[in-house]
Amino acid sequence: MATWAEWLRIALEALATAAFALSGAMEAARKRLDAVGVCVVSCLAAFGGGTLRDLLLDQRPFFWVRHVELLWAVLGLCLLAMLFLRHRHFEPTERAIQWPDALGLGLFTAVGVDQALQNQLPVLVAVLMGVITGVFGGVLRDMVCNEIPTAFRDHRPYAVCAFAGGWAHVALVALGQGGTLALVACVLVTAGLRGLSLWRGWQIPGWRA
Amino acid sequence: MATWAEWLRIALEALATAAFALSGAMEAARKRLDAVGVCVVSCLAAFGGGTLRDLLLDQRPFFWVRHVELLWAVLGLCLLAMLFLRHRHFEPTERAIQWPDALGLGLFTAVGVDQALQNQLPVLVAVLMGVITGVFGGVLRDMVCNEIPTAFRDHRPYAVCAFAGGWAHVALVALGQGGTLALVACVLVTAGLRGLSLWRGWQIPGWRA
Amino acid sequence: MATWAEWLRIALEALATAAFALSGAMEAARKRLDAVGVCVVSCLAAFGGGTLRDLLLDQRPFFWVRHVELLWAVLGLCLLAMLFLRHRHFEPTERAIQWPDALGLGLFTAVGVDQALQNQLPVLVAVLMGVITGVFGGVLRDMVCNEIPTAFRDHRPYAVCAFAGGWAHVALVALGQGGTLALVACVLVTAGLRGLSLWRGWQIPGWRA
């Protein structure tokens, strides 16, 4: 049973990492980067958020050092994408990866909140570490590609979903329901809100002129 | 007496942090970011310099983890600014925050130099850590907003004032006048030079063609 | 004999650091930054890659803290460049520094791989730490100047040469030929490939439309 849940978690994380990596590879392709740029931006999108969290929490080794097979997989995925994915496939691919991407936002947020709480950080900081883990891969991807990060300007809830999911996690831990239940709740709230907001076309407000 | 000075310091730091945070919120508004972007850029402007210093000095917990009320205050300030500040208020606001911003540059520089000296770093490195603490919040703010950092191209002395203030600090410590006196001197030299340069319209040179 | 090799290494590293710093100063000049911006971008180009490696490996003190004379030298070089280098000198200077730059890419890569291996990191991670040490100074330089990093889009092998050199280093260590031989091989492979690719005009592929 434990093994089965463990395998499910690994499969979901691999799927989410692939979605993040693909988003990076396609943005790099749009910006006409060369093969090196594609690999770097893809790795930044996939691993940037978790690496920034580990830097801030002063945790070593990084998760992509403990699981170096993830690095190999992302580099392999970049190679496959460069061989088989053409510009006309980008739009359908981006629509298809919206759902594993929402799942990844939830998973990475849950991991970030969990590790921050294990470091005895205040709850607001723990929630923000979750948001950073889920969102800053995409932020770094956009910054390297010389764009204002999409997460900060497209008015579609993304970081906000992770923020809500992080509070759900923290609330359950405060109620004594730590461990798996809090993790699952964080993933469901985050990914659920993200899915809902995509489906209903929710907008977050900007600055009124 | 000690308590009174302590309260003054806390009040000044809160004022300076608010000025930095407001500069971030207004730049985000100008770039038409959404509410998430406004909060992130504002936090980067307020906390980015000190966080980068703590990363470089390998210091944990970050000051915004020890004083998590600062994070709440900046998020609250963003909310208030989005509710009540309109684009037509930006120019007078920016003129008004020049002075607390100059003060903040001085305070943050002094803290940075002080912590670097406590880590037994060479004096040039200590001065640079002061400059990083005071200046790199604004640098990160501009980088996320996809601008060349203002501090590096507007020809108005800013980092240079922090550099001078840092040397004043280091000089007093070398003369055996550490502690409060060095901190106050650093603040006065930095903020004084910044005020003077704004008042007199001083320019720093660029590259001659 | 040991002393003679040591002196050669120090001279080569100083030459390479100067080439990296000059590339930063000239990019800053092209972007019309002021004197502060020139110094910052120059330091980022010279020290950014090694600093990012030390951050990721959690190594302190940074090499520019242990050798603070390097910082002084780069600041002095910026001053000299601003005094004596004119825009019409930029193109011949850039052609002249291609060769010390290729050497620097090799030296910095070798140091990065070596330090990662001493930290018992997996070989892929060690190679990537070498690449980061050699390449990310230029990446940070370009990001601060609001450009997509040249290393990711100019289709000329640069990071790829460091990648190959890193694998040569790792292979020799795996064969029991560690120490100086592996370092020298990494420098020769990296700098040699870079020189060859400049001479023959090699291109790395981009994304096929």
Please characterize this protein's 3D structure.
- The structure is a homotrimer of 209-residue chains.
- The first copy, chain A, is mostly helical.
- Chain A contains 8 helices and no strands.
- The first copy, chain A, has helices at residues 2-30, 35-57, 63-66, 68-84, 90-118, 123-144, 159-174, 179-200.
- The first copy, chain A, is globular.
- Chain A starts with a helix and ends in a 9-residue tail after the last helix.
- The relative contact order of chain A is 0.13.
- The interface between A and B is medium-sized, with 28 and 30 residues.
* Count of β-strands of chain A: 0
Order of helices and strands of chain A: HHHHHHHH
Question: Biggest interface in this structure?
Answer: A-B, 28 and 30 residues
Low-pLDDT parts of chain A are: none
Radius of gyration of chain A: 17 Å
Quaternary status of these chains?
homotrimer
* Binned strand content of chain A: under 5%
Helix content of chain A: over 70%
Termini Cα gap of chain A = 56 Å
Task: Characterize the overall form of chain A.
Answer: globular
Average pLDDT number of chain A: 93
Number of domains of chain A: 1
Describe this structure in a few short sentences.
Three copies of one chain form a homotrimer. By secondary structure, chain A is mainly alpha-helical.
